[in-house]
Design a protein that fits this description.
73% of the residues lie in helices and 0% in strands. It is an all-alpha fold. The chain is elongated and about 60 Å long. The termini are far apart.
């Protein structure tokens, strides 16, 4: 059983491998404020920095998946085509999210529209 912490194999797995579960990131508004304060950026610069960081994170994650051996990819039912579609969806979603946040954060522009 994988939910039994006393199982020696489960303990081995937990000690040997890092398995990310759930969200560990700060809420978006806090990340914007942090980027503005730490890096002395305005809203647009902070937003661009976070967007670039998101793209880098996706690149690193997808490179990691692609570095797996073909037998592991097959075992997890990961194909080149599924990765392409998944990355396309992630990039599209990120673009939409950041454009929305840009207009949400620029009250003067929103008021004119």
């Amino acid at each position: 059983r994988t939910d039994c912490p006393s199982d020696p194999f489960v303990r081995f797995f937990d000690e040997t491998f890092r398995f990310a579960e759930g969200e560990t990131e700060l809420p978006f508004e806090e990340r914007i404020e942090e980027a503005k304060v730490v890096h002395r950026l305005n809203f647009i610069e902070a937003l661009c920095r976070l967007y670039d960081m998101r793209l880098d994170e996706l690149r690193v994650n997808y490179q990691s998946v692609c570095s797996l051996t073909p037998d592991i990819l097959k075992e997890f039912e990961i194909s080149r085509e599924s990765l392409i579609e998944s990355l396309r969806m992630k990039l599209t979603t990120a673009k939409k999210e950041y454009w929305k946040r840009l207009f949400d954060g620029m009250e003067e522009v929103r008021n004119r529209l």
